[in-house]
Amino acid sequence: MKKVRLKWVKNRGLDHIIDRDTDTKACCLLLEYIDRLAAKSASSSPVPARSLEQFQKPLNLTIPVLRFLRRYPTLFKESPHPKYPSLPSFLLSEPGSLLLSRLSSSAASSDSHLRLARLLMLSQSRSLPLSALYSLRFDLGLPPDFTTLFPSTHSNLFSISRRKHDGVPIMSLSSYPSELAISVLQRKHLESPSYLDLKKPFSSSGAPLAFPMRFPRGYGGMNKVKAWMEEFHRLPYISPYSNPAGIDPESDLMEKRNVGVLHEVLSLTIHKKTKRSYMRKLREELVLPHKFSRIFTRYPGIFYFSLKCKTSTVVLREGYERGKLVEQHPLASLRDKVHYVMRTGLLYRGKGMSKLVLDEENGETNFGDENKGDFHDDDDDDVENFEIRVSDGEYEDEDDDEEEED
Fold first, then answer.
1. According to the 3-state scheme, what is the secondary structure of the chain?
2. Which end of the chain has fewer CB atoms surrounding its CB within 10 Å, N or C?
């Protein structure tokens, strides 16, 4: 299969989403940290900001933690420390406590254990180090105590042990739930036979499945790209849950299998994106090549590789449409509300609390329209939909009907 080298193209819409979600993630995790540290103190005293400085780099913050906390007074309430009044200290505000409670209950009661089980099923040994899972915890929507919660509530699925050769703590599958061993791409094709309307070529002995494509504008109409993607999609689809042993590591078939594995991992995340460094921790267990990052730039119609916020983030293009998630998970909706409360505090500062209406009667908070005033047209101005319908050796493309911006 002759590959086509495509120039990387920046996507303003997806970069905006990454920038926004980076601060939202930092706020969600800081809510957990402050609540946990305050609970450890004798009288739930405020948490000094200096005790949170260690989280600046892990949270990917470009400003000091103290400045970040003061930026969002609707979530973090600055309070004098009982022993050292001049020491900047913080507690959770009322909306912050309420949102944290909702986030925790949603993560514990959602289908997060099934997503974790599928991720473990993708691994070669049906187990992954806890350090790798902790990195992916927010992206997978796992509760903070998933390492103790899941083995107790789902003992038929999960167990905690240590790896024999190096003693690294790992989470393993107690049993293999074969009913979950079907990829997102396969499920969509089964649920909607018209999904990309891919027909089995007469000359093919396998059943190929087409990946949804959203190329940078101008690439989708190139004949060489069409020919390359047609040949790529005609290759048999290898389930990411199957054993890749016996496939030539240098073959085109193995590359399509690797694309399918990365597609599946990103599909399991709440926001259809994660950091490249997190995926690197899974490389050996997922049987990916050493330089697997090249796949992201080699297939820009499937993935978007971003360098926003001084880190490398991989986004599944099909997961977003006009600046919003195509499949809005309940946990993602709650995180949108966190962003709304953040933005209210940033815009109105001290008056921000008055803009949030608390309904004391039923314990609910009216956070208003969390998407209002924060819409940024996504990649529709930078990309075009590209679809291959394989049947009897013919291909056709369907470009986006929207007019291209000047």
1. CCCCCCCCCCCHHHHHHHHHHHHHHHHHHHHHHHHHHHHHCCCCCCEEHHHHHHHCCCCCCCCCHHHHHHHCCCCEEEEECCCCCCCEEEEECHHHHHHHHHHHHHHHHCCHHHHHHHHHHHCCCCEEEHHHHHHCHHHHCCCCCHHHHHHHHCCCCEEEEECCCCCCEEEEECCCCHHHCCCHHHHHHHHCCCCCCCCCCCCCCCCCCCCCEEEECCCCCCHHHHHHHHHHHHCCCCCCCCCCCCCCCCCHHHHHHHHHHHHHHHHHCCCCEEEHHHHHCCCCCCCCCCCCCHHHHHCCCCEEEECHHHCCEEEEHHHEECCEECCCCHHHHHHHHHHHHHHHHHHHHHHHHHHCEEECCCCEEECCCCCCCCCCCCHHHCEEEECCCCECCECCCCCCCCCCCC
2. C
Global pTM reads 0.85
pLDDT tens, residue by residue, 377-396: 444 545 544 443 333 333 33
